[in-house]
Amino acid sequence: MSEKEVKGLQRIDIKRKLPAGFDELTTKEKNEVIKKIQEQDIEIRGEMLRKVAKSEIAEHDLAVGIDAVQRLDHDRKIYSKKMEGETGSGTYELNIRGGDTKFIVPVLVSIGIIIIVLALLFH
Amino acid sequence: MYRYNYKKKNYRKNWRYNSKRSTQGLYYNSSYKKSLELIRTEFFNFDRVTFKKFSNFYSQKYGESKMKYMRQTYSKWKSGKTNMAKQTEFRILKCVPPYLSIDKQFELISYQVPSIIKQQKNELIKRRINASDLENTYKKFIKVIMEKEYQLDWFVKEVFSKEEVSEFLIVYKITMIECLRQSYEQVRKDLMEIIEIFPNIDCSIEFSYKIMLLETNINVDVFPIPGREKIDVDILKSNLVSKFKDKYKKILINHTLEQLKKDEIGSFNQKLSLYDIKKIINKIKNTSFDQEYDTKIIMEGHGGNFQIKIQRKNIVRMRYEVVKQTIKFFITSGLSGIIMYKIYSIQNFEIILLFGIFFIIYLGINWSKLNKLRWEVKDYERKRGERFTTN
């Protein structure tokens, strides 16, 4: 298989990837190097596609999880949602918390009641 | 009984000999053991012609009597009936290599690589480096490799010529320096591109980065990262002339191809990481202002791994928690005082002591909770203020 045919089939820029000292090699060694570059390229492309697919899935899962939190009835509720995922390049963890923080009134009322009860007890 | 004593005596003798040698670093390292194993295997598999040539060489070097002893004992050594004395082992180690094939000779010298890596490891270890010092650190590491005088097993210098040993070390150094040069470019590119994508949203960001090749953490103390994109090094010249030149050429070409593969995968990883981070950030940007989130992203970059912690807290809720805890603390303090006063009137010191300890512990816990909440508010505001902090 000539070099031209290899380029046409694989669409790989072989020249850019040739190592230093390539010209000094014998024809057999040159072919071996070109074959290795092609094999590496195919391996890398396969790995890339797998990783991209993984990232797309993780992105979709995250979007679904966040939408679910946004659709919650937020009034007078405290909520927390943990999401974990694996993308093509790594992992993520997301923990969302929220809810109504305007519950100072019941807390103050409870404290007031306790104070009154204690005051009555000690008088 | 006699047999036992004989063995014991020999053991002691050998032990003394071994201990003496081991202090010189000649024994007990894996490269030496592997080399010895290879030599013994090859020695016991010599064909008749090679064995004859070897015997002549042995005789020239150590005399005829030693050669005769060697020839007489050869079959016993081979069958394992007799153990080879250490001194004979040394002689074999010196005399067998010239009668090995080039492949086996190369295998023998290659066994030195783990020992060399071990020797340089201590000098290339740094737990943490500042981004401002990135270029200088890599240059220093390259200089260390270029100037390092590696200690090889004692027989290497006796078996291989000076040129062969020097060529072996130069090829090793070239591959190591190339790895460092590539790592520098990748790490710098990672830091420059990743830090730039941090969003302009109200949150705190912690960022940490670990160089894959050196297993070193980077403290991003400055941005943009100073220094050139590539490190210029006067690379060592490799005029391959020894009998191993074809092997070295193959190693260098394979190394280049391997580096090329790593570079392509790393470059893709970095692009994908940036894409993933942008997507995650866009999603968390859509959360409402009163929602809190903690995000931990661990991604693989081009030359290392990075970890990003993005945190948004509801500052109103945090302050409210501090106020709540403060009120709780003062109320419990007041109540504790009143109760203690009432108990004091009973004049029972055991009960006073018991309640006293209980209240002190209870108030102490409340006080530490209050301080923790106050610290959380301050820390979050500091991180927001600094835009991001580095670890």
Summarize the structure.
Chain A has four helices and two strands; from the N terminus they run H-H-H-E-E-H. Chain A is α+β, with helices and mostly antiparallel strands. The longest helix of chain A has 44 residues, at 27-70.
Descriptive overview:
The complex is a heterodimer of chains A (123) and B (391). In chain A, β1 and β2 form a beta hairpin. Chain A is of the alpha+beta class and 123 residues long. Chain A has four helices and two strands. Chain A has helices spanning 3-10, 14-17, 27-70, 104-122, and strands at 78-86, 90-99. The N and C termini of chain A lie far apart (105 Å). Chain A is 61% helix and 15% strand. Chain A has one domain (3-122). Chain A has a two-stranded antiparallel ribbon. Chain A is rod-shaped. Residues 1-10 of chain A have low confidence and may be disordered. Chain B contains 13 helices and six strands. Chain B starts with a helix and ends with a strand. The longest helix of chain B is centred in the C-terminal third of the chain and has 41 residues, at 245-285. With 391 residues, chain B is of the alpha/beta class. Chain B has three domains: 2-100, no CATH class; 115-312, no CATH class; 315-386. The radius of gyration of chain B is 35 Å and the shape is elongated. The relative contact order of chain B is 0.08. In chain B, strands 1, 2, 3, 4, 5 and 6 form a six-stranded mixed sheet that branches. Chains A and B meet through α3, β2 and α4 of A and α11, β4 and α12 of B.
